[in-house]
Structures are given as structure tokens and as C-alpha cells.
Amino acid sequence: MSKSIELAIIGSGIAGVSAAVYARRSGLDFVIFEEKGIGGQLLLMENIDNYVGLPLNTKGNDLAKELATTLEDLEIRPINQGITKIKMDEKAAILQAKDCDYKAKSLIVASGASFRRLGVSGETEFLGKGVSYCAVCDGFFFKGKDVAVIGGGNTAVEEALYLSEIANRVTLVHRRDQLRAIEYLQKDLFKKPNIEVLFDSVVKEIKGSELMGEVIIENTKSRREQSLSLQGLFIAIGISPNTDIFADSVSVDKDGFIVTDEHMRTSCEFVWAAGDCRKRPLRQLITAASEGAIATMSVYKYLRGHYISS
Ligand code: NAP
Predict the structure, then answer these.
(1) Global pTM?
(2) How far away, in angstroms, is 155 Cα from ligand 1 center?
(3) Three-state SS for 9?
(4) 39 with 57: CB under 8 angstroms?
(5) Same domain, yes or no, for 48 and 186?
(6) What average pLDDT values come out for the chain (310 residues) when binned by 10 residues?
(7) Which of 1, 87, 207, 208 fits as disulfide partner to 100, beta carbons 3.0 to 4.6 Å?
């Protein structure tokens, strides 16, 4: 089966949902694909405390539910299928889903990003047996245990703070002598009596038998190794864009993030990108939502030759 549409939106995180809301308002004939639940990375967030208009400490899950309600209210029914293949012809994107092919005159890629891997021995072997990429999802299993968080960005510090309320002891391991995380998070971090920070330190190996039990850390300056006895290891070293299937069709940077102009348009004239899959200066929910809106309005102009007044 094959269907022709004006716009396809891939991804139903905040960028994709925002794009869909604007597509509905603009009267475009569109579909939105979701694969792992509406909300994307929101589903993995504990607290949101920097989205204007939302109360402090709003739960990621709660905002994801609101997004789902918004779609329902606008009678937008996401297609719950991943796109397995994509092909560009001269004027359209041909998207292959499980049950149907879609020929879309325009495409917004809002496919988000996934957790970056450390690439050390034991990381894959002990995944789900001590190793995790999401404190909000798995922290509960480490009540009263000793855990470590790897990374020095906002996510790592937020995860360390979250885990400090559950675990016995948290060690934050960062490869440099300075954290990247925003100052107010660092202030909270250094106030916590059960968090220790190891600077200039990297993971060499993750060991255990059935479950993970030991992590070998190397000091990058002294080259000295130490063994930490740990039950949990939370890896929070950033994100990789979910752009593999688009990388042949649009320009991406060295890390795979899609390059766009200020209208979110990519190197392909009928493809736009928004949110964490895109090379962007500020990775925030609020910028992702805004990029989704900009992308759709730019698509509208492309398809109809003019902007609508908002
Ligand atoms: P990030 O800001 O890119 O930080 C990644 C951290 O992991 C950095 O400290 C980096 O070290 C370290 N790292 C990277 N590769 C590594 C490796 N192979 N081995 C060891 N360490 C490694 O990623 P993030 O913290 O996940 O945040 C992603 C984006 O979301 C950021 O733009 C962030 O601001 C945003 N975010 C915002 C909030 C908030 O506003 N509350 C919360 C979470 C995330 P270096 O410092 O040495 O590069």
C-alpha cells in the first residue's frame, strides 16, 4: 500500500509534537510517526525546572502525557511504526513503514537522540545488570547501594543528585578537572554529603560475575588505577543523534547531527530537522519545541508559497 501526503513528521518528542500542532493549525495533510511512545526523551526525565510557564519540578512523564492529550484534542493520531527505510526522489521522500509506504512532499526529521556509549569492556555485558543509561528509569533498583555516574554535563550531575536520594553513596567520575554542568547544579552537587567527585578519571573496565560488582578507574594524570566496588554504573556522557537512515540524504556534521539553516531546512530542499537530531547551539525542551514550530511554518511556506499569519 502507498499513500501520498504533504508532510511527514518523524518522531514524537517535543519537537515532533510541536511540528504536528503547527501542521494541524496550518491545515496541512500530514502524518506523524512515533515508535517508542509520545514524549521521546521526556519519558526519561525526572524534573523539568526550566520550561517557562510550567511549575518547577514538573515530571517528564507528566509533560509527555500532556503532549499526548494535545495530540488527541487536535485529533492527530500518530502512526505507531518506525520508518525502516527512506529514499529521496526528485521532489519527495519515500518512507517505508511496516504496513505502508508514504510519499511525502516534505519531511520534518525530529528523530531525537540516543545515549552515547563509553565503549569499554563490560559495558554491553553488564547492561541491565548494573550498567544503565537512565537514573530515572533504573535508579530505584539501587536503593541503599553504592553507584557511580560517568560524565560531567548537566545530565550526569542531575543523575548524581537524583541517585544521592536513593543510593547509599554516589561517585561522579569525570574525565577532566572541571565539570561542564551549569553552576546551580554544581552548587547542589558539592553540597551533598554522599556524593564524591573524581576528576581527571576515566573508566577502564567494568567487571563482575552475574551482576556488575567492580569498576576500574584510571587517573588520566597519574595513570594510577583504582578499583571501585560498585553495584550500579550510570553512563551519562551525552547523546548521539538518531540520524543513521537520513545520513545519505542530508548533510550531517562529524557526529551525525543534521545541519540546517535558521528555518530548520536541511541540504535537501524538501527536508527539515528539529530537536536533538539537529546540530544546534542549545539542547533544551524549549528550543526543541520552538524548532518544531519553525520547521512546520517553513514547510508551509515551501508548499503553499507564502506564510500564514499567526
Ligand atoms: P553533554 O553536555 O554533552 O556532556 C557530556 C559529558 O560527558 C561531558 O562532561 C563530557 O566530557 C563527558 N563525556 C563525553 N564523552 C565521554 C567519554 N567518551 N568518556 C567520558 N566522558 C565523556 O551531555 P548531557 O549532559 O547529556 O547534556 C546533553 C544536552 O542536554 C546538553 O546541551 C545539556 O545542556 C542539555 N541538558 C540540559 C539540562 C538542563 O537544562 N537541566 C539537563 C540535561 C541536559 P567533557 O566535559 O570533557 O566534554
Answers:
(1) 0.86
(2) 6
(3) strand
(4) no
(5) no
(6) 95 98 98 94 86 93 97 97 92 92 97 95 95 91 97 97 97 98 97 98 97 98 98 96 94 97 97 97 94 98 80
(7) 1
